[in-house]
Amino acid sequence: LLTASKKVFISYSLMSNSRDKLLPSGFVSGLQKIFSVNGQPLSPMRTADYISFLKTQQDTYKLCEDFVYFCASKQNAMHEVLKLKYESDFNKSVLTSLFEFIKSDFKNYGERNVPEKFSPEEIAELNFPNNTVTVSKVEKYYSCPFKQFANYALKLKERDVSEVLPFDIGNFLHKIAEEFLNHKNDFVNRINSQNIVSKNEKKNKTNLILINVVKNIIEKLKANKKFYKFNLKLNRNIAGILEKESIRLCEFLLYSQSVSKFRPAYLEVFFGGKGFPSYEIKVGENVFYITGIVDRIDIYNDMFIIIDYKSGTEGTGGASELYYGDKIQIYAYLKILEKILNKKPCGAFYFPVKNEYKDEKNKEKEYQLKGKAIDDTMFLTAMDTSVNFNNPTSKIFSCKLNSSKKILESGEKKYSKIYTISSSILSNMEEYSIKMVENAIKEMLEGNILPSPRKNACNFCKFASLCGYDKKQGFRDSVYKIINSFFESEN
């Protein structure tokens, strides 16, 4: 009765996110006071103690069993084995047996801690399961190789907290947009079925129905365990704010659909599975498959655009962001979907879903698509039919009608080229994004996981306490300011 049959493995960080040394854990100190072994208080044990423990064992199989028990779980055992792999004085044959013993029953062993260097085979296994790669993984690599490896290869997760974070709000609003567009036709039918005489009456009834629809969507989402935080008592104070923001978002979606001829044809479509096929690229002698999820594809006749939802205000899809690898996803997706859909790519946009709340005075500018559109009059007119000489600026994306006196006199519709790019430039941007994916794969296969952050990559980074990067070393900054004309010729 005095011998426990199970063990609990408790760990805590020695360094804070700001890279300051932390005081001993109060929780661990409390456990030391409560429990004892042979009359002696518990004491923390480090890697050196594990090594000493292993060296005392003679029977390899017994060693494997004892070590897993010692670490409390196969998961924690694999943590330590990956570290021990690079201990020069450790018996390699014993280590191999230990590795295979743990691996046999622990399928996700690759989702753990990282030694300083892996072989190309191990890098491929961790970074590219089944030779697949996502563009978001590539973007994270260009942000910081260590950040990408910790996030996507090791799949390290932060401890979940009960408070609603900006990330949670962004995800919630993203889902609101998807649900609303999925049921937009039902909403429009409800409006049309009303016996309405005046425009004011239609506006009022539309607002009432919209509010009702949004409330129903919110209740449906809150029933999903993914959004459990929004049901907790401590988060109830944001419920009213979130509802108002959801209504604003849906008002924008409704307005944009009322003035545009483009319609959402696909929402949350996955390529690389049952949805669309993956995109094949060759790097050296290896073939890799780009997979991912496209938030939204809008189609009108033989033209299409893609829209990627982003939390906050990050990213506009500018030329510099593409050149340095910060934002390549929308262009890579455009290239992939052009082949799948067999339609003309006309624009790639980010939809900044707000996770912070603006002043009511700025309400009109809160939602707008950010990205690149081609300078094709037929496309631009279909994208926003409300744009005319009396209303020259689009409210749904960056587009403006040229309203010079000469143009007004001619009566010909011409759009300002400040906000648009040529089809050839867009095509070259697509090609460049694929080359950036290939280049990132090459570097990842070489084993590059060193902390080498771009400017702002360390802001709010959840792995800051792991890498210990000294900001005084500087960052990989944007040396050149890239403009659209850089992509006029294929690079």
Share in helix: 40-55%
Mean pLDDT: 79
How far apart the termini lie comes to 72 Å
Helix-strand topology string: HEEHHHHHEHHHHHHEEEEHHEEHHEHH
Please state the CA-atom Rg, rounded to the nearest Å: 27 Å
Low-confidence runs of at least 5 consecutive residues? 106-116
- The quaternary structure here is single chain
Separate helix tally: 18
Helices and strands: which structural class? Answer: alpha/beta
Could you give a short account of the major beta sheet?
8 strands, mixed
Strand content: 5-15%
Count the E strands: 10
- Principal-axes geometry comes out as globular
Short description:
By secondary structure, this protein is an alpha/beta fold. The protein has helices at 26-34, 47-55, 60-70, 74-84, 92-105, 120-127, 135-143, 145-153, 166-182, 184-192, 199-222, 239-259, 319-323, 329-341, 377-383, 405-410, 423-445, 464-467, and strands at residues 36-37, 40-41, 132-134, 263-271, 279-283, 286-300, 303-311, 344-353, 370-374, 420-421.
